[in-house]
Amino acid sequence: MSYTVPEPKLFACTQSQALGKEIAKAYGADLGKVIFSRYSDGEFQPSFEESIRGARIFIIGSTHPGPEHLMEMLLMLDAAKRASARHITAVMPYFGWARQDRKDKPRVPIAAKLVAKMLETAGATRIITMDLHADQIQGFFEKPVDHLFASTLFLPYLRKLKLDNLTIASPDMGGSKRAYAYSKALESDVVICYKQRAKANVISHMELIGDVADKNVVLVDDMVDTAGTLTKAADLMMERGAKSVRAITTHGLLSGSAYERIENSRLEELIITDSIPPRQESPKVKVLSCAELFADVMHRVHHNTSIASKFLM
């Protein structure tokens, strides 16, 4: 007797509707219908408007600030669990609160661990995400985590540019592993910036380790928030004789005056993905879609085929 695996159902949180539709299109499916009832005080309630009993479902939603985005994902997971879905995968292109992955001083939380536990308690049986701020966050989960790399999008783009004297740069010591992986794939040199912070989002001092004279430099990072680090690094490298400086960062938070900083900086361009909806357009900001990457991985997960190629630089 032959058995046909039923197709999964795809849903999207409100903050990721645009990306959710693109993922569903790439998957070859339609987004399922969810309605959100909202109270005047801001409380909201999601409701699946179709049966999901016994189904595999994917809930797409990045959990970038503010906290209502995370709460929305948690409520969607809980609703799916209580509606007897068989497998519930949280598809989180951007895993928020990931910068709080350890205690870096006394009396502070480890928010990434807390978020992991809340997702599991709410009902997630699997997590699919991309470029976590710290690889060890995968260990915060007891459920399977598929950790994808946006390098599968960025490397083809960089190769098309055909930059001579290419050098990969990390804007801080923590990103050196990522920079070395890109440099290996592109057969280029590596330089690293050493920075000291006065407080969160404020850099007091930055130094460059390595030579960038007459080089086309590409800064690589997992996220860009205020763009203070990237723009300061770009200016420093141009002062040291670089021919050009670009930046690739997976998650474009771009909060506060980030767009203004980028446009006034010596960055040639900033390349990001659409894991987070861009707040505005900028001539210096290019957005690459991650929809096909996630659709492909979701298809492989559903049909129990290997996704090892998506983990490689």
From TrEMBL:
Domain Ribose-phosphate pyrophosphokinase N-terminal, first and last residues per copy: 9-123
EC class: transferase
GO MF assignments: ATP binding; kinase activity; magnesium ion binding; ribose phosphate diphosphokinase activity
InterPro entries: PRib_PP_synth_CS (IPR000842), Pribosyltran_N (IPR029099), PRTase-like (IPR029057), PRTase_dom (IPR000836), Rib-P_diPkinase (IPR005946)
GO biological process, any: ribonucleoside monophosphate biosynthetic process
Sorted UniProt keywords: ATP-binding, Cytoplasm, Kinase, Magnesium, Metal-binding, Nucleotide biosynthesis, Nucleotide-binding, Transferase
Pfam families to which the protein is assigned, alphabetical: Pribosyl_synth, Pribosyltran_N
SUPFAM superfamilies xref list: PRTase-like
GO cellular component: cytoplasm; ribose phosphate diphosphokinase complex
E.C. code: 2.7.6.1
Keyword Glycosyltransferase assigned: no
Known catalytic reactions: D-ribose 5-phosphate + ATP = 5-phospho-alpha-D-ribose 1-diphosphate + AMP + H(+)
Entry-linked PROSITE patterns: PRPP_SYNTHASE
Top-level lineage group: Bacteria
NCBIfam families: PRK01259.1, ribP_PPkin
Protein name from the UniProt record: ribose-phosphate diphosphokinase
Organism: Robiginitalea biformata (strain ATCC BAA-864 / DSM 15991 / KCTC 12146 / HTCC2501)
